[in-house]
Design brief:
Keywords: ATP-binding, Chemotaxis, Kinase, Nucleotide-binding, Phosphoprotein, Transferase, Two-component regulatory system. The protein is of the alpha+beta class and 543 residues long. It is built from 17 helices and 18 strands.
Length: 543
């Protein structure tokens, strides 16, 4: 498996060789027409990018040559020099030298001596004539070899289509595997097992091709933080961590606005003004950390500040004012349940409208984006110390892990992303509190409801729970969403497996409780439950 350094080197080489091809073409165009402004602008851009990329990779000599040539093209662009005579000869030599240096990086050979070229470039900058030896002449050597890059650029929509096809293949693979086991023919079983391995490898290869570094998004935030901090009259130091963590490019695209909102929120709401920080015994400059890390099959992106933290009592009071919860019920909510109100549509703690906050666009927008990916959004906060928002994201959105279970003779699936645990409990360990069944799971009291009752009870409130209606051991799936847990009683657990989720067709796509369908190896259509919708339904219908 390639190291990250090797991958970066290959990407650098592909871009450097592409830049060289562009330089060769545009400098020839400029020779034919010295007034070609478009070719000149493109040469300036290519030199600037090559300089930046080379310095970032540690190829200082290439960066130095590109920098000096960029300076000359800048002088030509500003009409201080003309592309003619000895200046043109030196620039052609410069492109040749850059080609040789890029090839030296590729071959890991000794870099050519760039000192004579750099000396001539410096003379040109100073308005002096370059020193050209008789034997000196990127004109092109008649025997120059032409080579193509080992890397190609592919539009993401092509990879999307390829991954969809792989998803269809996986569904048929599972059906063939199931049939081979039912028929029991050794040759068919061996072929099915081989197909399973090949499709697995194909799936992960396609998914790997879609991966990009989180840094491609995180590295855009220093300017954002600077601009927002200036607008809010705050001092902020940004720290970026884990930029080399890889994730599906489409996931990164979907969370871009959500991450931008969280960063603005952290500066606008979280961090105090320099004066307030000093009063609180903190440094005037606030700290904001944007980090990424992997945890099992998930990618965790965190936005952490060392600001004022979330005042739970203020949020509780605001939730009561908004009519989101009664005063009596609000008294019994723990801190996590109260903080969950921050994700309600339009909920805002801003006291005044600014460019950053108070415009009715709250954290619900962030939550919706994460929900669409089957991810989770966690919030941890200590008053006076700071707040951390954690985005728990799948590495890929094409194939998801799911828990299969049975209810009324039908198979259903629930994404593992929202599955906290599974337990089997006897009715006598369940108890009723306020008309709701409660179970103690891993030291935490969790409300429990029959999934059958939740799905088929209509629009009215759920009837009060009755423990005596339960017979025998109960299989319960503990789901987690928005810092809340809920136990769903099902008929029986089946198994855990990867599934390809397809959207539901009209008019079934209007049913919020189902996030899509998948096809099992047996050929059965299996509904995939939407955990956020189920959780909201339970809260709305509970007594």
């Amino acid at each position: 498996m390639k190291s990250r350094e090797q991958e970066y080197r290959e990407i650098y080489m592909a871009e450097a060789l592409e830049a060289y091809d562009g330089m060769s073409r545009h400098i020839s165009e400029l020779e034919r027409n010295p007034q070609d402004q478009q070719a000149l602008n493109e040469l300036f851009r290519l030199m600037h990018n090559l300089k930046s990329n080379s310095r970032a990779m540690g190829f200082v000599q290439i960066g130095e040559v590109a920098h000096n040539m960029e300076t000359i093209f800048g002088l030509i662009r500003s009409k201080d020099r003309e592309f003619s005579g000895s200046l043109a000869k030196v620039l052609f030599m410069g492109v040749d030298v850059l080609s040789a240096m890029i090839r030296a990086v590729e071959d890991e050979s000794t870099m050519p001596d760039s000192a004579p070229l750099l000396a001539n470039l410096e003379r040109l900058v100073n308005g002096e004539e370059p020193i050209l030896e008789e034997e000196e002449k990127d004109d092109e050597d008649a025997n120059r070899k032409l080579e193509l890059s080992d890397l190609v650029y592919i539009q993401i929509k092509k990879l999307d289509h390829l991954l969809n096809l792989v998803g269809e293949l996986i569904i048929d693979r599972d059906r063939i595997l199931t049939l081979s086991q039912e028929i029991g023919h050794p040759a068919l079983q061996a072929t099915a097992a081989h197909l399973f391995r090949i499709t697995d490898e194909l799936q992960y290869s396609v998914m790997d091709a879609r991966l990009v570094n989180v840094g491609s998004l995180l590295n855009k935030f220093p300017r954002v933080v600077r601009d927002v901090a200036t607008a809010e009259k705050k001092q902020v130091e940004l720290t970026l961590l884990g930029q080399d963590i890889q994730i599906d490019r489409n996931i990164l695209q979907i969370i871009t606005d959500a991450l931008l909102h969280l960063v603005r929120n952290a500066i606008g709401h979280g961090l105090e003004t320099p004066a307030d920080r000093e009063k609180a015994g903190k440094p005037a400059q606030g700290n904001l950390v944007l980090s990424a890390q992997t945890e099992r099959d998930d990618v965790l992106i965190r936005v952490a500040d060392d600001g004022r933290g979330i005042d739970v009592e203020n949020v509780r009071r605001k939730a009561i004012e908004r009519g989101l919860v009664s005063k009596e019920a609000a008294r019994h909510l723990d801190d996590a349940a109260v903080r969950a109100f921050l994700f309600e549509p339009g909920f805002s703690m801003a006291k005044e409208v600014t460019e950053i906050s108070g415009r009715g666009v709250g954290l619900d927008v962030v939550k919706l984006a994460i929900d669409s990916l089957g991810g989770q959004l966690r919030v941890d906060s200590v008053l006076g110390k700071g707040t951390t928002f954690t985005l728990v994201l799948p590495t890929s959105i094409a194939v998801k892990g799911a828990l299969l279970f049975e209810l009324d003779g039908r198979n259903y699936a629930i994404p593992l992303m929202h599955t906290d645990s599974v337990v089997s409990l006897m009715p006598d360990v369940l108890h009723v509190v306020g008309g709701v069944l409660m179970a103690e799971v891993q030291g935490e009291n969790v409300p429990v409801v029959s999934l059958r009752r939740l799905l088929h009870n209509g629009d009215g409130p759920l009837p009060p729970a009755n423990r005596t209606e339960l017979e025998g051991r109960q299989d319960i799936i503990i789901i987690a969403y928005n810092n809340r847990k809920l136990g769903l009683i099902v008929d029986r657990f089946l198994r855990q497996q990867n599934i390809v989720i397809k959207p539901m067709s009209k008019p079934l796509d209007t049913i919020e409780l189902f996030g899509g369908v998948t096809l099992l190896g047996s050929g059965q259509v299996c509904l995939v439950l939407d955990v956020p919708a189920l959780t909201r339904l339970f809260i709305a219908r509970r007594v």
